[in-house]
Amino acid sequence: MLDLTPKSVSERSALRINPCKTCQPVGALYAALGVHRCMPHSHGSQGCVSYHRTFLTRHFKEPAIAASSSFTEGASVFGGGPNLRAAIKNIFDIYNPDVIAVHTTCLSETIGDDLNSYILDMSIPDDKVVVYTNTPSYVGSHVTGYANMLSGFIRCLADSRAAKNGGTAVFPGFVNPGDIREIKRMLALSGLSAIVFPDQSDVMDAPMTNTYVMYPRGGTRLDDIRALGGCGRVLALGGFACAEPADVLDKKCKVPYLVLPLPIGVAATDSFVAAAAEVAGRPVPVELEEERGRLLDLMLDANPYFYNKKVAVYGDPDTVIGLSSFILELGMRPGYVITGTPGEEFVRRVEALLRDYDVENCTVKAAADLFELHQWIKNEPVDLLLGTSYGKQIAKAEDIPLVRAGFPVLDRYGHSYLPIVGYQGAIRLAKMIADALMDRQDRDCADEDLDVVM
Ligand code: SF4
User: Fold this and answer.
1) What is the pLDDT of residues 68-77, one digit of tens each?
2) Fewer C-beta neighbours within 10 Å, C or N terminus of the chain?
């Protein structure tokens, strides 16, 4: 079937085929799940939230809880205020979360529901909180929705009168729980105590026990989100997911921020480690220096397999920029670099990276889709696909190795537990890439060239 994808590329402005993104509420829901005892709430129809929950569950292989305003025809015409009021009361009565995080959907945005006035008019129990944000899915992507939900928490909760305590907050970006664990491990090794917001570790990778727990022990505490207003600085990892919330916090509470790239690969991890060491006022810990040394050793050892291989990288903007930077460090060549999230800033950032490495003939595009990536590859093939599970059809049709990284990975297990950030994550990525290329070489070589020692 995919062999029927035509080689000739024609310009499309009003149609996406095989999108390289999903809708804003998916990101908003994921962000809200990174807050302790939070019930995400989708203000729209049940169909939307079923999709959002299913999408997250397929990636994390964990239940993603969320409630819905359950719009029917009446709410769609006359507004969803009564539905939201009933929902908030029922959720607090039955499920007893500490906070409900409400996001909109295409439907409630289109009819113009005003969440702010609805929530101001509600009676909310004294010890409970309702936060909200707007996530119209006809603009942006799940990454925009993630950023919007973080901004919503900050607008509703960060305390601008909190006494300045000089503390540090880290916004870890749209990454897996395994990445957040790795970021926290690097912070601990650096001697830096920080508020990590949000924190989906121990929520979306909670251990199996004999008992279902609706609110696992993970997640950023509400008091920590309130205390963000008293922090001395924010390290925001990934400009597309975290710069906007950091800016909202700065404007509200005068907390300066530093936007760093997601720490994927050597240079980006160096930047994070150096920033953490500077804030902690300590030298870079020996453990991290040694991990870096092991990573460089692996990169040198396997260089003949990486060198000059052409790669198509696709997925979320911060992740794709990190992956592109790392494959350049490995000596590989990006041939196509795309994201489904709109915004020309992505193109500017990737092109600047390519200039640093004197790379020419690489196609870079935001708001792109996998159909056009497939068409480009049909015309000029690559040696490797690096991105989400959605590339597997291209991989099969064109017989190209695929290394899965980013969000979502729906067709394999364990990815959300293991990091791609930090030096340890880069060792894992380099191993996955080398394995894919060497498996391919073993498969294609003549019998007499099949060597056991590489
Ligand atoms: S209608 Fe909008 S919010 Fe609902 S699933 Fe579709 S894109 Fe997402």
Assistant:
1) 999 999 999 9
2) N
The answer to whether 60 and 48 have CB atoms below 8 angstroms apart is no
Residue 170: strand pairing partners: 196, 235
Fold classification of 168-287 (topology level): Rossmann fold (3.40.50)
State how far the Cα of 67 lies from the Cα of 49, in Å rounded to an integer: 8
Strand pairing report for 67-68 and 38-43: parallel
* Contacts (Cβ under 8 Å, ≥6 apart) of 118: 81, 84, 85
Show me where the domains of the chain are located: 24-157, 168-287, 303-412
- Two structure tokens written together for 300: 């040198």
Rounded to an integer, what distance in angstroms lies between the CA atom of residue 449 and that of residue 454? 11
> How many whole angstroms from 116 Cα to the centroid of ligand 1?
21
Contact 257, 236 (CB under 8 A): yes
Q: 3-class secondary structure for 9-36?
A: CCCCCCCCCCECCCCHHHHHHHHHHCEC
**Do residues 142 and 24 make contact, with C-beta atoms less than 8 angstroms apart?**
yes
Ligand 1 pocket member 106 (CB < 6 A):
yes
CA atoms within 13 A of residue 357's CA, in its CB half-sphere: 20
- Which pair of structure tokens corresponds to residue 329? 């460090």
Predicted pLDDT of residue 11? 86
pTM of the model as a whole: 0.97
Measured by CA distance, the residue closest to atom 5 of ligand 1 is 48
Q: pLDDT class for 1, splitting at 50, 70, 90?
A: low
Query: Domain 24-157, what architecture?
Result: 3-Layer(aba) Sandwich (3.40)
Per CATH, the homologous superfamily of domain 303-412 is Nitrogenase molybdenum iron protein domain (3.40.50.1980)
Ligand 1 contact via 368 beta carbon (within 6 Å): no
